[in-house]
Amino acid sequence: MQVVVGAGVAGLVIANRLLNAGYDVVVLEKSRGFGGRLATRRIGNLRFDHGAQFLKANEPREIPFATDQWIRWADKSGAQYWASPQGMTNFAKNLAVNLDVRLEHLVTKIEILRTGYRLLADCHSPSEAERVYLSCPLPQSLKLLKNSHIAYDPCLDQIKYAKALIGLVGFEDAVPAIKLDAIQLNPTPDIAMVTDQKSKQVSNEPAWTFTMASNWSEIYFDSSEQEQKFAMLRAIDRWLSVINKDVQFNGQILQIKKWRYSHPLTQAQYLYSEVFKNLILIGDAFGGGSIHGSIRSAISAPL
Ligand SMILES: Cc1cc2nc3c(=O)[nH]c(=O)nc-3n(C[C@H](O)[C@H](O)[C@H](O)COP(=O)(O)OP(=O)(O)OC[C@H]3O[C@@H](n4cnc5c(N)ncnc54)[C@H](O)[C@@H]3O)c2cc1C
Questions:
Q1: Ligand 1: does its nearest atom lie under 6 Å from the Cβ of 264?
Q2: What is the CATH number of the domain that holds 295?
Q3: Between 141 and which of 134, 149, 214, 233 could a Cys-Cys bridge form, CB atoms 3.0 to 4.6 Å apart?
Q4: Do both 23 and 134 map to the same domain?
Q5: What is the mean pLDDT of residues 47-71?
Q6: How is the chain classified by DSSP, letter by letter?
Q7: Can you give the pTM of this predicted structure?
Q8: Structural domain for 7, as ranges
């Protein structure tokens, strides 16, 4: 048995590789759904991607095992962006179709056995494995190794993650009369990305996602939701005034989503780390802080 911890894109890609190679594989995921930072949420009749918004890849070959009907667009430099019209979670759900994914399995400890490993998960019987892949955001994988008294390359402790606060915005009245691309990257120093979910075909009704910049998110991460909303509204007003000072923001921040581990600020020198025989770390801290980076790590790791 091979066990993968984490059902984000890295975990799902390595699990598919193992399955295709003929191994028995189980994926243990702590949350109630697939995808990790590929996350889509419905609020009333609106739908939002509130984690990753797009995948950057030159061609479909770089997105292994995907069966999605992608929408694709290119920027002025020719870089290609891909998104799943049902929302980015759908990409993860499709990757998981043939896999044995056990949701609500928080792995808390790994014991080294003579022939492999025993993984302890909250409220579930332990799983035994010949080989284990940890695909959590790196600080969470390292915490698990520390709890398990398993040593790893101390350089990995230097890799820190940025935080992200996300504003999910809907409109009771007409949407502000501005021309908005599906995705605007870094439109102001406070905002890392504005996404029009309707243009991305994720939502039938107007729905905007504001991914706040890491510096901004760091400042407000532990503030009350009221303070976060107030500061976010000011940042949105500043953004709109740059585009068209005659337009007023008439949207409503419906929800704020917090990501403690958004993306790594630096990355490891290698694409995966085998910390002990057949115990392998993968994910965006290795391949680079993006979906593509996580895929690159998962397709480089040994089976
Ligand atoms: C707001 C935001 C916007 C982003 N925008 C983009 C973008 O537009 N384009 C892009 O390419 N990238 C973007 N990224 C980065 C991208 O989402 C990530 O790099 C990528 O999805 C990471 O995938 P992963 O599988 O490595 O990790 P994750 O998606 O984090 O998956 C790890 C999984 O492990 C699970 N887990 C953790 N600990 C345990 C445990 N102890 N037991 C069991 N399960 C556990 C988690 O619940 C999670 O499901 C964004 C990220 C965020 C947060």
A1: no
A2: 3.50.50.60
A3: 134
A4: yes
A5: 86
A6: -EEEE--BHHHHHHHHHHHHTT--EEEE-SSSSSBTT--EEEETTEEEE-S---EE-SSGGGSTT-----EEEE-TT--EEEE-TT-HHHHHHHHTTTSEEESS--EEEEEE-SSSEEEEETTEEEEEESEEEE-S-HHHHHHHHHHTT----GGGGG--EEEEEEEEEEESSPPPS----SEEEEEETTEEEEEETTTTTS-SS-EEEEEE-HHHHHHHTTS-HHHHHHHHHHHHHHHHHHH-TTPPP-EEEEEEEEEEEEEESS--SSS-EEEETTEEE-SHHHH-SSHHHHHHHHHHS--
A7: 0.96
A8: 2-159+268-300
